[in-house]
């Protein structure tokens, strides 16, 4: 088929592909902005000499970091503060990433409200931009126009680094293949939480008529089709979120009907289908085990709002529970966090529906251990098991967590042990023997901690909120990949948290990792 350049649609004002994220979004300092009444506390933290002797008289042993992250910051958390108040939950990371991939399905403009200002969104924007899409923030609305997507059948350029840094990059294979007949994409990265193959997505593309070649040496995948993809039956080996989204997008522009069985039921699939329907796609059954897509010739533009992030909400719920605090969350639909609320209730902490929407965490005295299995939606989310492990570590009694989605997602366990948590991992299951506060004093102790991935970072923040003394959490860029100002939100609820580049340059010595600043 002859290559044909696609015409750009007329826009009121052309979107500049070079529009900088920073320029268009009100610039926020990387540091937590102190409110007036917290300036004094920040002043005091500046006066702490991390090289001085600890309260107990034994020297604190710090060593220079082996490889400090250039420009990196550490989060300093002073544990033991009670939280209170109300906070609004930001838009969903994973829904936003899927909707940005969905914007590649059309030459028309897609307008997205509620997209969070986080690292992964910036990477996804770099990716779609490299593929030929222009984007721009207008107020709180992210506008994307993929009119410039490569001509049909010609391999498109792709920001290798951005694509490899994200798992969600790979779902772009679906719209690229459907719209241009060719998708060339590096094998994706994302959080280091165990093996994350792409075989299910590729099997789905093959089922729709694509020829797929994987070059494991270079780490690139190329999928091609002659003419349009053709609809087909796609039975997923596992209910993969990414594969469901990629096949749904590919099927939307395919010839005929695509039936996805054993589909993922996560809200992020429903959200993508919702936007695609507005674009003119014919999809039924999203959110159920079977999704049916009837292909159309072309999709148009759409406006969509990203709903609140259920994982951020769950993280804030964990923060409320572990600190014994009553807090209110705005924007989150309680149905979206039902499994999380169920776990908290079994642990003795109430969750109430908010009067004006949202929900409230209602502490109910002592936290109790509980068993939970992380499963695909509507089960308890795997993304929250590292966040709830510290809640279990501070509860009375024994808990167990099995992760049936990512069985190797346990990097946080060793870090929690540094804080005194009793947590052991065997295969896909962690056993936690709780250490509840004794005589009103927490048994978890502040420590130097290293975040290994996004949700592990969030779990360490939650643990540090309830630990005695001060914790320093390194590798904060993991947290910033997926949370829109979690520290800022916690500070607004009364937590004592600070960002510091100077403190990021400190690392614990081998014998003393607990920091007692004597604040
Ligand atoms: N899997 C395969 N082959 C595939 C695809 C998946 O074996 O081709 C396996 C995975 O290894 C995993 C299971 O299937 O064991 C489920 O993975 P899934 O494809 O559902 O996950 P994903 O689409 O890669 C999304 C979220 C993750 C979240 C999981 C599960 C995005 C960008 N990521 O990943 O979010 O943990 O679904 O709910 O949507 C996070 O936000 O921290 C995060 C990791």
From TrEMBL:
Keywords from the named record: Cell cycle, Cell division, Cell shape, Cell wall biogenesis/degradation, Cytoplasm, Peptidoglycan synthesis, Transferase
Record's keyword annotation contains Transcription regulation: no
InterPro entries in the cross-refs: Enolpyruvate_Tfrase_dom (IPR001986), Enolpyruvate_Tfrase_sf (IPR036968), MurA_subfamily (IPR050068), RNA3'P_cycl/enolpyr_Trfase_a/b (IPR013792), UDP_GlcNAc_COvinyl_MurA (IPR005750)
Ranges for domain Enolpyruvate transferase: 79-489
One GO MF term: UDP-N-acetylglucosamine 1-carboxyvinyltransferase activity
Catalytic activity, EC: 2.5.1.7
Biased composition range(s): Basic residues: 20-31
An annotated GO BP: regulation of cell shape
Pfam families reported for this sequence: EPSP_synthase
Any Gene Ontology CC annotation: cytoplasm
Catalytic activity: phosphoenolpyruvate + UDP-N-acetyl-alpha-D-glucosamine = UDP-N-acetyl-3-O-(1-carboxyvinyl)-alpha-D-glucosamine + phosphate
Pathway: Cell wall biogenesis; peptidoglycan biosynthesis
Superkingdom, taxonomy of origin: Eukaryota
Family membership: Belongs to the EPSP synthase family. MurA subfamily.
Annotated protein name in UniProt: UDP-N-acetylglucosamine 1-carboxyvinyltransferase
Lineage start: Eukaryota, Viridiplantae, Chlorophyta, core chlorophytes, Ulvophyceae
């Amino acid at each position: 088929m002859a290559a044909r350049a696609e015409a750009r649609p007329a826009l009121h004002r052309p979107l500049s592909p070079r529009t900088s994220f920073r320029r268009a979004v009100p610039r926020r300092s990387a540091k937590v902005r102190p409110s007036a009444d917290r300036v004094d506390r920040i002043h005091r933290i500046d006066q702490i000499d991390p090289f001085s002797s600890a309260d107990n008289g034994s020297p604190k042993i710090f060593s220079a970091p082996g490889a400090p992250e250039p420009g990196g910051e550490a989060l300093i958390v002073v544990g033991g503060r009670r939280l209170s108040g109300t906070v609004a939950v930001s838009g969903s990371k994973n829904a936003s990433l899927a909707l940005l991939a969905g914007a590649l399905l059309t030459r028309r403009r897609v307008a997205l409200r509620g997209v969070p200002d986080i690292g992964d969104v910036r990477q996804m924007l770099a990716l779609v931009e490299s593929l030929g899409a222009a984007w721009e923030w207008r107020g709180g609305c992210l506008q994307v126009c993929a009119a410039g997507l490569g001509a049909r059948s010609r391999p498109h350029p792709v920001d290798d680094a951005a694509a490899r840094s994200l798992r969600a990059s790979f779902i772009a294979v679906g719209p690229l293949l459907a719209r241009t007949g060719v998708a060339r994409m590096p094998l994706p990265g994302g959080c280091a939480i165990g093996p994350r193959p792409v075989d299910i997505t590729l099997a789905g593309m093959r089922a729709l008529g694509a020829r797929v070649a994987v070059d494991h040496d270079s780490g690139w995948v190329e999928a091609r089709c002659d003419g349009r993809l053709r609809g087909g039956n796609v039975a997923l080996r596992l209910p993969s979120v990414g594969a469901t989204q990629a096949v749904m997008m590919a099927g939307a522009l395919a010839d005929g009907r695509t039936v996805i069985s054993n589909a993922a039921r996560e809200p992020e699939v429903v959200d993508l289908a919702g936007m695609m329907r507005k674009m003119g796609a014919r999809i039924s059954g999203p959110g159920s085990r079977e999704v049916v897509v009837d292909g159309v010739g072309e999709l148009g533009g759409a406006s969509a709002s990203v709903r609140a992030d259920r994982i951020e909400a769950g993280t804030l719920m964990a923060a409320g529970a572990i600190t014994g605090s009553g807090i209110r969350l705005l924007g989150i639909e309680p149905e979206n966090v039902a499994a999380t609320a169920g776990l908290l209730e079994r642990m003795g902490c109430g969750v109430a529906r908010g009067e004006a929407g949202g929900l409230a965490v209602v502490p109910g005295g002592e936290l109790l251990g509980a068993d939970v299995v992380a499963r695909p939606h509507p089960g308890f989310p795997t993304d929250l098991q590292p966040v709830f492990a510290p809640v279990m570590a501070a509860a009375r009694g024994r808990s167990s967590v099995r992760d049936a989605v990512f069985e190797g997602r346990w990097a946080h366990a060793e870090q929690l042990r540094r804080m005194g948590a009793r947590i052991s991992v065997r295969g896909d299951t962690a056993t936690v023997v709780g250490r509840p506060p004794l005589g009103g004093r927490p048994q978890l102790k502040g420590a130097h901690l290293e975040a290994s991935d996004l949700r592990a970072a969030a779990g360490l923040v939650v643990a540090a909120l309830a630990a005695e003394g001060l914790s320093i959490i390194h590798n904060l860029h993991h947290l910033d990949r997926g949370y829109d100002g979690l520290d800022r939100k916690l500070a607004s609820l009364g937590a004592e948290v600070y960002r510091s580049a100077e403190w990021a340059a400190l690392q614990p010595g081998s014998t003393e990792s607990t920091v007692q600043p004597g604040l």
